Amino acid sequence: QVQLVESGGGSVQAGGSLRLSCSASGYGYSKFCMSWFRQVPGKEREAVATIFTPGGGTYYSDSVKGRFTISQESAGKTLYLQMSALKPEDTAMYYCAAKRGSCVGTWTYWGQGTQVTVSS
Asked: What are the residue ranges in the chain where pLDDT is below 50?
């Protein structure tokens, strides 16, 4: 059974940095996609950063491009999101997600989320 567990959220002042981690277990696919989503109450969940294995191709939303970096190690067993130059509008619940195969379509596995709060 695949499990995703996020950690690393917290409160930070604007301009600061945080690194989120997502520990994946029970996941043994050779081709898979992992992503960080975020959601604020009343809004749709937004994909902010995505990484594909194999190859390591990445995608970033315009709202975080140049400030956030997605990476992984141990063949996807741990996913990271390095967030820098944080803004109050980055405040959200951040979720780790994964799916087998391409990065298109429905995301199969989700973590429970970790809260990020950025104060001005």
From this structure: none
